[in-house]
Please model this.
Amino acid sequence: MAVAVQEAVRDGAPSAAPPADGVPAPSRRRWGPRRGLETLLVYLVMPVGLLALWQIASDLGWISAYLLPPPSRAATGFWEIATDGTLWLHVKASLFRSIAGFLIATSIAVPLGVLVGWSPLFRRLSHITLLLLIPIPITAWISIAIVWFGIGDASAVFLVALGAAVPILINTIHGVEWVEPIYIEAARMLGTGPRQILWRIVLPAALPNIFTGLRLGLRNSWAGLVVAEMIGAKSGVGYLIWDARLMMRSDLVIVGMMMVGVLGLVSDQTMSWLGHRLLRWHEGLSRND
Amino acid sequence: MIDRAAPAKIRAKGVAKTFSSEGRDVVALQPVDLAVAEGEFVCILGPSGCGKSTLLRIVAGLIAPSAGSATLDGRPITGPGPERGLVFQEYALFPWLTVMQNVMYGPLVRGLGRREAERRAKTQIARVGLEGFEQHFPRQLSGGMKQRVGIARVWANQPDVMLMDEPFGALDAITRNILQRDLLKLWLEERHTVLFVTHSVDEAIFLADRVVVMSARPGRITAIVPVEAPRPRDLLAPESITLKAELTRLVEDQVMGARGEPSRLREYVN
Ligand SMILES: Nc1ncnc2c1ncn2[C@@H]1O[C@H](COP(=O)(O)OP(=O)(O)O)[C@@H](O)[C@H]1O
Ligand SMILES: [Mg+2]
Model:
């Protein structure tokens, strides 16, 4: 009964490619890496264009160099602290806090989210508490963080973890709570015991949501990091920005802000790459970026 | 064709179901009596919303009846179990598993070991004609192929009875015909007991030993019609057309609420 292939064609695929819906090959993505140079140029048009405009506007004197130093000044500033090693010191401190905080957040928020999402009792027990805690912005925690952990790494790690934990928790709860009941029914009909449902069905089914939570959590954690470093630390990119302002070095303020942008971009793309690897089966993640 | 004296494989006795949601009671199923013999292919035919899925899900053990009891081999059905394989209209494949892993799932989760699971999965994937697609994920398959996986996944568990809830209902007409033919061919090889829900008269005539006609909601069985013609059946043969007219009228009567002439084929249950 080798009818499957014909039928796939009949099911709506115009070509004779075996699976009707096709493997989502890179060629299907309009801006896939395969397009090479051309694609890269399209991606670069906006950032390069903006930098150029900014530089030109500064050269023409439309923007005060103190309020917004031109990119050339920022580049000189960058070179200055990059060569004397201070930049790397700050970046290293921030990276450590970010990674440590994120790992702590993941290891607490994912299991907690699974518990709350899976057990109706825990959901009810924690409901009001979570509703009260979630709206408190990360910045509001800085004072108590310094009281608890003092000035330094611990305060920053705490705020990063807190900033990351909230989206991770919310998305994990949501993913676990809203697993399609039909998967659970199918699994039970196939002989899955009640204890195995969580591991075999609920967790894999919730994984895309958990992953969204991780990615949003990582993005959210930079706010916590920068605020903590501005007020509660003597190193890190946040401290760099704060200190530069006190020294009237607005070029270094710009450099610090851009470093946050670069760190955020790199970490976000790393998560995205990881997501593609882990969630090949899931269409939601393979289409966009 | 059916030996009435043979003990029933599946038996429903006075099975009824009332759902209560938001304080309102919805009678989905009025008391139903049904016996399906070992090796018999029974189609439940009725308009949508008449309680076909409810009856099937009670036999599956996914919901408990409000009254009456369902038994398999004389033992009461108290919950879901792998000796009753359920095929869903929505396929319900696990999207995070490949075709191979989906079909291996049942044997694996029941502790038969990886080797045995692989052996069974390979056999069943070949039977449903999906060799070469083992490493595909469900989202890479067409609807027809998904349902082939759904059927292979259930067969890998070697169930005693197969419960199918409008398995081809979401497919286009051509794919549906191909799958009906293939299912019939495979069923003839093993002749497991099948309880198959459909709202298509053609499908019921093509597949069933007996067609159980259900009334519009609240559902009850209004007629049980044997289909005697030898398989494979030609739906354009005169006796098929007569039967089709008969069954169509029985079903439409239910939808219209009209009272037609008693049918000579009609075999009243209550
Ligand atoms: N879980 C439920 N809660 C409330 N009503 C339900 C539920 N399941 C089914 N029903 C109702 O019971 C009736 C029969 O449903 P169903 O068995 O799915 O019909 P069919 O499969 O014949 O289309 C419908 O009116 C439906 O709305
Ligand atoms: Mg139904």
In short: The domain at 1-83+200-270 of chain B is CATH 3.40.50.300 (Rossmann fold). Residues 238-256 of chain B form the longest helix (19 residues). Strands of chain B lie at 8-21, 24-37, 41-45, 67-72, 75-76, 84-87, 161-165, 193-198, 210-214, 221-226.
